[in-house]
């Protein structure tokens, strides 16, 4: 309590605007340094087949390996980077790094990269993706781009054009956090999505809420009609996984299967995952 008051008193010394400006410019400088010093890292979370449980690919999730603060999550710096041109540098790095890493994986595995729509507005993203695919040798169908629908509101035409260009390369386009924006459905009219990722809030609510389960059923059926792949994220329990497979979601992702993994943990994950799948299928055959 005393400590809190002490901090409050310190805050009084400079105006809120000054303090925010100072924090902003120091974060900007630190983030630029982070790119140069290679402190940004990608962790990889598996997406598993809802029908077989096999890993089908991994989503690359950015973290900032900060020298003092440790591993910093994207919620603390991506929004900030989007307000400056840093999001373009970060996005370009992410695409190159993810393609390079995935090019070393077994060939059936895909890699998903989160991109900000801001990046789509200001850069030749088609060129960046073509170069990253060329340099890494990754087959285009193994790359997936995830875009959060809420960010697509502006400059619809130029974004659509770039999405079409990327899709024409053979790259998969996914709408992330489906259901959270106020015009999710209208985006399906405007954009050539291959895949919908149902926002984790619906999955979390499905445990106790029949309405959430009805919404999930409706999204799964919409996906079937549109012939898009449906992924559910934030799957934390066996019960949720069972329900989502029952309503025929195609892919599942969440802590129930694995947390985002440090790249160094990937080989072990894949080995034990494959061994586990083999043992399970042998057991089924014996039964
Ligand atoms: P997202 O793309 O929807 O990613 C899913 C988030 O849910 C990740 O958080 C992931 O760690 C977390 N998650 C996975 N399974 C579970 C689960 O079972 N339960 C719960 N409660 N959470 C789960 P993370 O890594 O903190 O990323 C947050 C958001 O930051 C991402 O949401 C994405 O929008 C953005 N982001 C992440 N990496 C990048 C990037 O490289 N570039 C850009 N532009 N945005 C990124
Ligand atoms: Mg995502
Ligand atoms: Mg999401
Ligand atoms: Mg999200």
List the helices and strands and how they pair.
Layout: H1 2-12, H2 16-36, E1 40-49, E2 55-66, E3 70-72, H3 78-83, H4 86-102, E4 110-115, H5 117-122, H6 125-136, E5 143-148, H7 156-168, E6 172-178, H8 184-190, E7 195-198, H9 200-206, H10 210-226, E8 229-232, H11 238-246, E9 251-252, H12 266-286
Parallel strand pairs: 2-4, 4-5, 5-6, 6-7, 7-8, 8-9
Antiparallel strand pairs: 1-2, 1-9, 2-3
The structure holds ligand C2E and magnesium ion (3 copies).
Domain EAL: 24-274
Protein name: PAS domain S-box-containing protein/diguanylate cyclase (GGDEF) domain-containing protein
State the main characteristics.
287 residues; alpha/beta; globular; binds ligand C2E; binds magnesium ion; PAS domain S-box-containing protein/diguanylate cyclase (GGDEF) domain-containing protein
Polypeptide structure, described:
There is one protein chain. The protein is α/β, with parallel strands linked by helices and 287 residues long. It is built from twelve helices and nine strands. The chain has helices spanning 2-12, 16-36, 78-83, 86-102, 117-122, 125-136, 156-168, 184-190, 200-206, 210-226, 238-246, 266-286, and strands at residues 40-49, 55-66, 70-72, 110-115, 143-148, 172-178, 195-198, 229-232, 251-252. It has an eight-stranded mixed beta barrel, surrounded by six helices. Strand 5 (143-148), helix 7 (156-168) and strand 6 form a beta-alpha-beta unit. Helix 6 packs parallel to helix 7 and helix 9 (200-206) packs across helix 10 (210-226). The radius of gyration is 21 Å and the shape is globular. Mean pLDDT is 89; it is low at 1-12. Bound molecules: ligand C2E and magnesium ion (3 copies). One magnesium ion binds next to strand 6. One magnesium ion (MG) binds next to loops.
């Amino acid at each position: 309590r005393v400590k809190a008051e002490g901090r409050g008193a310190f805050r009084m010394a400079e105006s809120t605007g000054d303090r925010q400006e100072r924090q902003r410019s120091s974060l900007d400088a630190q983030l630029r340094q982070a790119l140069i010093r290679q402190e940004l890292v990608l962790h990889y979370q598996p997406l598993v087949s809802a029908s077989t449980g096999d890993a089908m690919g991994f989503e690359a999730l950015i973290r900032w390996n900060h020298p003092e603060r440790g591993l910093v999550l994207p919620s603390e710096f991506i929004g900030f980077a989007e307000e400056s041109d840093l999001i373009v540098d970060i996005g370009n790095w992410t695409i190159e790094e993810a393609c390079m890493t995935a090019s070393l994986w077994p060939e059936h595995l895909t890699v998903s990269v989160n991109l900000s729509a801001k990046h789509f507005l200001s850069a030749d993203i088609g060129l960046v993706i073509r170069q990253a695919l060329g340099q890494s040798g990754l087959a285009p169908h193994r790359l997936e781009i995830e875009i959060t629908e809420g960010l697509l509101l502006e400059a619809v035409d130029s974004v659509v054009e770039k999405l079409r260009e990327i899709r024409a390369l053979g790259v998969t386009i996914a709408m992330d956090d489906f259901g959270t924006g106020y015009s999710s459905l209208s985006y399906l009219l405007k954009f050539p999505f291959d895949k919908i990722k149902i926002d984790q809030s619906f999955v979390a609510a499905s445990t106790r809420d029949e309405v959430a389960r009805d919404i999930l059923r409706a999204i799964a059926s919409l996906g079937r009609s549109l012939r898009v792949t449906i992924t559910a994220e934030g799957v934390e329990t066996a019960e949720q996984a069972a329900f989502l497979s029952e309503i025929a979601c195609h892919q599942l992702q969440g802590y129930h299967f694995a947390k985002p993994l440090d790249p160094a943990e990937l080989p072990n994950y894949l080995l034990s995952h494959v061994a586990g799948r083999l043992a399970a299928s042998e057991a089924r055959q014996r039964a």
